[in-house]
Write a structure and sequence with these properties.
Elements (H helix, E strand, L loop, with lengths): L4 E7 L7 H12 L4 E5 L18 H11 L3 E5 L9 H10 L13 E7 L6 H13 L11 E3 L14 H24 L4
Parallel strand pairs: 1-2, 1-3, 3-4, 4-5
Length: 190
Protein backbone atom coordinates (compact mmCIF):
# COMPACT_ATOMS: atom_id res chain seq x y z
CA UNK A 1 0.00 0.00 0.00
CA UNK A 2 1.44 3.34 -1.07
CA UNK A 3 1.12 6.22 1.34
CA UNK A 4 0.88 9.87 0.37
CA UNK A 5 2.92 12.20 2.56
CA UNK A 6 1.88 15.75 3.32
CA UNK A 7 4.94 17.95 2.98
CA UNK A 8 4.90 21.53 4.18
CA UNK A 9 7.38 23.76 2.44
CA UNK A 10 8.79 27.04 3.71
CA UNK A 11 10.36 29.60 1.38
CA UNK A 12 12.94 31.59 3.31
CA UNK A 13 12.52 34.68 1.13
CA UNK A 14 9.52 36.95 1.58
CA UNK A 15 9.80 38.24 -2.01
CA UNK A 16 7.08 37.03 -4.38
CA UNK A 17 9.65 37.20 -7.20
CA UNK A 18 12.29 35.22 -5.30
CA UNK A 19 14.32 32.68 -7.25
CA UNK A 20 13.88 30.36 -4.27
CA UNK A 21 10.09 30.69 -4.57
CA UNK A 22 10.54 29.79 -8.25
CA UNK A 23 12.68 26.79 -7.23
CA UNK A 24 9.99 25.71 -4.75
CA UNK A 25 7.40 25.79 -7.54
CA UNK A 26 9.63 23.62 -9.71
CA UNK A 27 10.14 21.13 -6.88
CA UNK A 28 6.40 20.83 -6.32
CA UNK A 29 6.00 20.00 -10.01
CA UNK A 30 8.82 17.41 -10.01
CA UNK A 31 7.91 15.67 -6.77
CA UNK A 32 6.99 11.99 -6.62
CA UNK A 33 3.23 11.35 -6.65
CA UNK A 34 3.45 10.08 -3.09
CA UNK A 35 4.33 13.58 -1.86
CA UNK A 36 1.75 16.39 -1.70
CA UNK A 37 3.26 19.85 -1.07
CA UNK A 38 1.60 22.81 0.65
CA UNK A 39 3.33 26.10 1.34
CA UNK A 40 3.59 27.18 4.96
CA UNK A 41 3.67 30.98 4.77
CA UNK A 42 5.88 33.01 7.09
CA UNK A 43 5.25 36.55 5.79
CA UNK A 44 2.68 37.60 8.43
CA UNK A 45 4.58 36.44 11.50
CA UNK A 46 5.50 39.21 13.93
CA UNK A 47 8.99 39.16 15.40
CA UNK A 48 9.20 36.47 18.06
CA UNK A 49 8.62 37.90 21.53
CA UNK A 50 8.75 35.72 24.64
CA UNK A 51 6.10 37.97 26.22
CA UNK A 52 3.59 36.59 23.71
CA UNK A 53 4.11 32.93 24.71
CA UNK A 54 0.98 32.85 26.93
CA UNK A 55 -1.21 34.07 24.04
CA UNK A 56 0.36 33.28 20.66
CA UNK A 57 -0.67 35.56 17.78
CA UNK A 58 -2.95 33.92 15.16
CA UNK A 59 -0.19 33.77 12.49
CA UNK A 60 2.10 31.89 14.90
CA UNK A 61 -0.67 29.46 15.93
CA UNK A 62 -1.39 28.78 12.23
CA UNK A 63 2.32 28.18 11.57
CA UNK A 64 2.48 25.61 14.35
CA UNK A 65 -0.74 23.91 13.15
CA UNK A 66 0.60 23.69 9.58
CA UNK A 67 3.90 22.21 10.73
CA UNK A 68 2.22 19.72 13.06
CA UNK A 69 -0.18 18.70 10.25
CA UNK A 70 2.72 17.92 7.90
CA UNK A 71 4.52 14.61 7.67
CA UNK A 72 7.72 16.40 6.66
CA UNK A 73 9.13 19.84 5.89
CA UNK A 74 11.08 21.23 2.95
CA UNK A 75 13.03 24.46 3.48
CA UNK A 76 13.86 26.40 0.30
CA UNK A 77 16.06 29.30 1.27
CA UNK A 78 18.34 31.99 -0.04
CA UNK A 79 21.55 32.97 1.71
CA UNK A 80 21.74 36.40 3.35
CA UNK A 81 25.10 37.47 4.77
CA UNK A 82 26.34 33.86 4.97
CA UNK A 83 23.26 32.74 6.92
CA UNK A 84 19.53 32.23 6.61
CA UNK A 85 17.12 35.14 6.23
CA UNK A 86 15.85 36.67 9.45
CA UNK A 87 12.25 35.85 8.49
CA UNK A 88 13.09 32.13 8.35
CA UNK A 89 14.91 32.18 11.69
CA UNK A 90 11.94 34.05 13.16
CA UNK A 91 9.55 31.36 11.89
CA UNK A 92 11.69 28.63 13.45
CA UNK A 93 11.69 30.53 16.74
CA UNK A 94 7.87 30.70 16.71
CA UNK A 95 7.62 27.01 15.74
CA UNK A 96 9.69 25.91 18.71
CA UNK A 97 7.98 28.01 21.37
CA UNK A 98 6.76 28.12 24.04
CA UNK A 99 9.30 25.88 25.73
CA UNK A 100 8.09 22.29 25.67
CA UNK A 101 5.94 22.65 22.53
CA UNK A 102 8.51 22.35 19.75
CA UNK A 103 6.52 21.71 16.56
CA UNK A 104 9.71 20.70 14.71
CA UNK A 105 10.55 17.90 17.15
CA UNK A 106 10.95 14.67 15.18
CA UNK A 107 9.73 16.22 11.90
CA UNK A 108 11.87 14.97 8.96
CA UNK A 109 13.17 17.83 6.83
CA UNK A 110 15.19 18.69 3.75
CA UNK A 111 17.03 21.89 2.89
CA UNK A 112 17.70 23.32 -0.56
CA UNK A 113 18.41 26.74 -2.01
CA UNK A 114 19.30 28.68 -5.12
CA UNK A 115 21.60 31.63 -5.72
CA UNK A 116 23.40 33.09 -8.71
CA UNK A 117 26.67 32.90 -6.73
CA UNK A 118 29.33 30.23 -7.22
CA UNK A 119 28.82 28.66 -3.78
CA UNK A 120 25.07 29.09 -4.05
CA UNK A 121 23.48 28.76 -0.59
CA UNK A 122 26.02 26.36 0.93
CA UNK A 123 26.79 28.37 4.07
CA UNK A 124 23.15 29.21 4.81
CA UNK A 125 22.16 25.58 4.38
CA UNK A 126 24.81 24.40 6.81
CA UNK A 127 23.64 26.98 9.32
CA UNK A 128 20.00 25.93 8.85
CA UNK A 129 20.90 22.24 9.24
CA UNK A 130 22.64 23.09 12.51
CA UNK A 131 19.51 24.90 13.76
CA UNK A 132 17.25 22.02 12.67
CA UNK A 133 19.53 19.53 14.39
CA UNK A 134 19.06 21.43 17.65
CA UNK A 135 15.26 21.35 17.17
CA UNK A 136 15.49 17.54 16.81
CA UNK A 137 14.35 17.56 13.19
CA UNK A 138 16.03 14.74 11.24
CA UNK A 139 17.50 16.36 8.11
CA UNK A 140 18.30 14.80 4.74
CA UNK A 141 22.09 14.61 4.56
CA UNK A 142 22.63 13.51 0.97
CA UNK A 143 22.40 14.64 -1.68
CA UNK A 144 23.16 18.21 -0.77
CA UNK A 145 21.44 20.62 -3.14
CA UNK A 146 23.10 23.95 -3.88
CA UNK A 147 21.43 25.22 -7.06
CA UNK A 148 23.36 27.84 -9.02
CA UNK A 149 20.60 29.88 -10.55
CA UNK A 150 20.96 31.35 -14.03
CA UNK A 151 18.42 33.36 -16.01
CA UNK A 152 15.91 31.03 -17.61
CA UNK A 153 16.78 27.97 -15.49
CA UNK A 154 13.18 27.77 -14.31
CA UNK A 155 10.29 29.15 -16.36
CA UNK A 156 7.42 31.19 -14.93
CA UNK A 157 5.26 28.04 -14.82
CA UNK A 158 7.90 26.02 -12.90
CA UNK A 159 9.54 24.03 -15.69
CA UNK A 160 13.26 23.38 -15.27
CA UNK A 161 14.93 24.07 -18.63
CA UNK A 162 18.25 22.30 -17.96
CA UNK A 163 17.91 18.50 -18.21
CA UNK A 164 20.81 17.84 -15.83
CA UNK A 165 19.35 20.12 -13.18
CA UNK A 166 15.90 18.58 -13.60
CA UNK A 167 17.32 15.07 -13.24
CA UNK A 168 19.26 16.12 -10.13
CA UNK A 169 16.18 17.70 -8.54
CA UNK A 170 14.18 14.52 -9.19
CA UNK A 171 16.90 12.44 -7.49
CA UNK A 172 16.96 14.89 -4.59
CA UNK A 173 13.19 14.59 -4.14
CA UNK A 174 13.38 10.78 -4.34
CA UNK A 175 16.01 10.81 -1.57
CA UNK A 176 13.76 13.09 0.49
CA UNK A 177 10.81 10.76 -0.12
CA UNK A 178 12.93 7.82 1.04
CA UNK A 179 13.85 9.67 4.24
CA UNK A 180 10.22 10.56 4.94
CA UNK A 181 8.88 7.08 4.24
CA UNK A 182 11.65 5.37 6.23
CA UNK A 183 11.18 7.75 9.14
CA UNK A 184 7.40 7.36 9.14
CA UNK A 185 7.60 3.54 8.99
CA UNK A 186 10.01 3.44 11.91
CA UNK A 187 7.91 5.86 13.99
CA UNK A 188 4.46 4.39 13.48
CA UNK A 189 2.77 3.78 16.79
CA UNK A 190 0.23 0.99 17.21
Amino acid sequence: MSMTYEVGYVVGSLSQGSINRRLAGALVGLAPQAMRFTEIPIRDLPLYDHDLDPDFPPAARELKRAIEGSDALLFVTPEYNRSIPGALKNAIDWATRPWGSNSLDGKPAAVIGASPGLISTAVAQQHLKSILSFTNSPVLGQPEAYIRYTDGLITDNGKVTDEGTEAFLRRYLEAFHNLVSTFNRSHTWT
